[in-house]
Amino acid sequence: MTIQFNDETFRDDYTFHNSDWAIRRFPFPFHEDSYMYSVNMEQHRGGPAGSVYEKRFDVDEHYVSEMKDRAIVLAEDPLRCQSLPHMTLAGWDLLELIMVSKSEDYPDLFELHRDGNDWRWINRPLGIDDRFTFLDEATLPYGPMEYITRQTQGDFAVLDQRDENLWMDAGMVTTQADWSLDFDIGMNFFEWHAPVPLAHEMGIFKRALKFLLNVQQGNPARRLNWTMTVNPLLDTSPENYHKWGIQKTTLTPENIGSKQHLRVELQTFFRLPRSNALVFPIRCYMIALQDVVTVPKWGRRLHRVLRDVPVELATYKGFIGNRPLIVDYLSQFDDGLPTSDGIWPDLDTEPPLRKG
Amino acid sequence: MSAGTEKIDVTVTDIVKLNDLVTRFKFERSDGGQLPTFSGGAHTVVEMQDDGITRLNPYSLMSDPMDQSAYTISVRRDDEGRGGSLFMHNRVKTGDRMVISYPVNLFSLDLRARKHLMIAGGIGITPFLAQIKQLDRLSGRFELHYACRSAALGSYVDELTANHPNAVHVYYDDQKQAIDLQRLLTGQPLGTHVYVCGPKGMIEWVRKTSAALGWPEEAVHYEEFLAPQSGKPFQVRLAKSGITVDVGEHESLLEAIERAGIDAPYLCRGGACGQCETDVIESDGTFVHRDHWLEDEDRASGCKIMPCVSRFEGRTLVLDR
Ligand code: HEM
Ligand code: FES
């Protein structure tokens, strides 16, 4: 399938929008009517055709515009992309992983030609056709991690593995849910997770780390995480909180359906072969509430989940203030009928909303 | 080895006897494709079908990590061991098909190091061969101290000293040459990391000596193979389903349950998520718990098992499934 790329913005006039296709394949993160943190990891081995799980690195209609937005963020704040000196090899690993995956998974969009270390990379959507020498930084316009992640949706944390821990020693982070690479750089798994409520006490991070240390080559893993964002703003960074925090106060019952977005991160984990580092791509998908509720099952479920989610989580995720408005809005789309298990829309089997 | 580690079908394309004890094997993909790259220090687990017994032995990859056309390993014959090395020496022929795992690295270089100080004993040289090739490419600084029994048993000494005359130091036991570890460790520049691979005694010696000299633990690395996670076959009775299932030495309990057509819950298949937790109704034997999920109380009580990674040895196991 050839993708029609949207021309849209994630700032100022916010022209971001999802097509019907994008709505149907949205990674709705709730498999039941309630939510609590858990060690929700599974193998990343594809998924239903057309779903965001199908390919190793999903490319969708927002690709070109997201890459433009990333370039704007980087121009304003170069510290969003950092790589400690010992992480260069991991950067090459990542470049190779993405180029090989994308050229195999989307041959009409990307091509990789390799003759020993002489490589040619063609990225049609972005109009790139570059020749370079693999493992020779001087032949690329940026370092290898920066080069490839300027062409790949999602944030990337590249973790060095040593001393039975993971260390955030490199990354490209411009579409994050309120955390900062510049602050976290050099930290370990427990240190960068310190602000998260409840999960430490539940033993989640201890178990998750054990699992991650054991993620092996050829056997990637994935999980979903979610939060709520007012306006389709990709760059909700602490660095820019003064610009976006205030937007949270602009919600009204009239505009909430279009302004309030459910923000979902498809997080994947790949062992990098040459460096033995681990890469953690964090791919962000956003959807306006008015689009969520076009899937009856999702409308019912989102209402129940957001109504009941513990205060600690709603506070940490930054929507505690707007929760009453959100729940009020969503209640119109919950007729109390039971919902089917799992995250899929089940449009053919779930009943339409009963009015009144 | 973790559950779900990927396997590769390979053909043995070359066997070279290096000396009385050590033989080198070369593997290429049977489908003609490329092998995954790896990082120096990685091993592969070789599966051997030995008269009805499956043996799983880990061997360090010694070939150039950049070379995706073939992997090589060196196997030291161990006449007292459980037989994996004897099988490789006596039974494996050029042209044989074998199954190996994707590379796994539990002995990787710390790429922050300003200098890599390598200490090898005997067959412990193999991971360093790949690491040195990797460092050559990255222009990394290293120094190798390699102890062998005798010149005749000094695998790869010639190649190493020819390619790296200034960085490689060889010590022969039969000539009463020994590594002066104390001096070696005290003379290192700041930011040096030390790596040791060899007999248990040598690893202990390097760890103790470096600790006594105040080396931080994080700067001292030693090779440690995870025991392959297969185990003896056993039988399990699934009470709810009313069937008995044989769990083979090579599959997990979860896989055996699935093979029997039962839809058991799982998510991570790695002992972390808790999804597959299953109640034990009755047991007479020992649990081999390998998960990161159960609390110590659960294990002590013998009432729960995580079938994605854990096993059982004994007479009776009945699960609530
Ligand atoms: C190595 C890969 C990972 C990286 C780089 C990473 C990074 C982060 C970061 C930077 C945050 C934000 C913390 C803050 O408030 O400053 C976060 C939050 C969190 N992480 Fe991770 N994480 C990783 C893996 C995992 C895994 C495997 C789990 C498994 C359960 C997990 C669970 C969580 C949870 C529950 C939160 C809170 C999120 C929320 O409520 O929105 N993380 N992570
Ligand atoms: S499937 Fe996750 S613990 Fe067994």
From TrEMBL, chain A:
What Pfam families does the database record attribute to this sequence? HODM_asu-like
Q: What is this protein called?
A: DUF3445 domain-containing protein
Entry superkingdom: Bacteria
UniProtKB/TrEMBL annotation, chain B:
Organism phylogeny: Bacteria, Pseudomonadati, Pseudomonadota, Alphaproteobacteria, Rhodobacterales
Q: In the Enzyme Commission scheme, what number(s) does this protein have?
A: 1.-.-.-
Pfam families registered for this protein in UniProt: DmmA-like_N (PF22290), Fer2 (PF00111)
Q: Which cofactor does it need?
A: FMN
Molecular-function GO term, any one: oxidoreductase activity
FAD-binding FR-type domain: from which residue to which, for each copy? 5-110
Q: Does the keyword Oxidoreductase apply?
A: yes
Name the record gives this protein: PDR/VanB family oxidoreductase
The source organism is: Sedimentitalea xiamensis
**Entry-linked PROSITE patterns:** 2FE2S_FER_1, 2FE2S_FER_2, FAD_FR
The UniProt entry, under PANTHER family, shows:
CARNITINE MONOOXYGENASE REDUCTASE SUBUNIT, NADH OXIDOREDUCTASE HCR
**SUPFAM superfamilies per record:** 2Fe-2S ferredoxin-like, Ferredoxin reductase-like, C-terminal NADP-linked domain, Riboflavin synthase domain-like
Membrane-crossing segments per the record: none
**What are the 2Fe-2S ferredoxin-type domain coordinates in residue numbering?**
234-321
What is its EC class? oxidoreductase
Question: InterPro entries annotated for this entry?
Answer: 2Fe-2S_ferredoxin-like_sf, 2Fe-2S_ferredoxin-type, 2Fe2S_fd_BS, Beta-grasp_dom_sf, DmmA-like_N, FAD-bd_FR_type, FNR_nucleotide-bd, MRET
Q: Which UniProt keywords apply?
A: 2Fe-2S, Flavoprotein, FMN, Iron, Iron-sulfur, Metal-binding, Oxidoreductase
